[in-house]
Design brief:
Elements (H helix, E strand, L loop, with lengths): L2 H25 L3 H17 L7 H21 L1 H4 L9 H5 L2 H5 L4 H11 L5 H8 L3 H24 L1
Helix pairs in contact: 1-2, 1-3, 1-7, 7-9, 8-9
């Protein structure tokens, strides 16, 4: 195995899990769309021969790139007219928090994921997503309120 192949393999192993989760949120569990996204994102790294300074640089790049890729795919006319194939993994069924996040508007999904699942601070998320820190605080606050409303609706059903 060449050094480049080993480098890509290590990048994949370190980053694929949270890339999968971000794609899962955007594509609402559609396994084929998630796999296509992951493949496209790693192909971009290979084709552009991207070398990261450290693991945090790679993680931030993958989060932003995955977010942008997914937003563009979801906007595409084909995806608006396509039936979704839900393939929710067992651990996601047991912890339905990620499933609840699927019900949030797009602008709240990634900041909530980055903050609560990946442990990024609001300042870090703001830098990565290139928005103001106050915007991130607002998205997190509004997203939590929406999640609370969803949970209350489920209790009454």
């Amino acid at each position: 195995m060449t050094n480049q192949e080993e480098y890509i393999k290590q990048l994949y192993e370190k980053n694929v899990n949270y890339i999968y989760k971000i794609c899962f949120v955007f594509f609402k569990g559609n396994k084929s769309d998630i796999e296509d996204a992951i493949q496209s994102i790693f192909l971009k790294v290979i084709e552009k021969n991207i070398i990261f300074n450290d693991d945090e640089h790679a993680k931030a790049w993958f989060i932003v790139t995955t977010n942008n890729y997914c937003k563009n795919k979801v906007k595409h006319w084909w995806n608006k007219n396509k039936e979704l194939d839900f393939d929710i993994k067992q651990e996601d069924k047991e912890d339905n928090t990620l499933e609840l996040i699927l019900n949030l508007p797009d602008k709240y999904k990634v900041p909530i994921y980055m903050h609560y699942y990946e442990g990024y601070s609001c300042i870090e998320i703001a830098k990565i997503l290139k928005v103001s820190e106050n915007t991130i605080y607002s998205y997190l606050h509004r997203g939590r309120l929406l999640l609370k409303d969803i949970l209350e609706e489920e209790k009454h059903e």
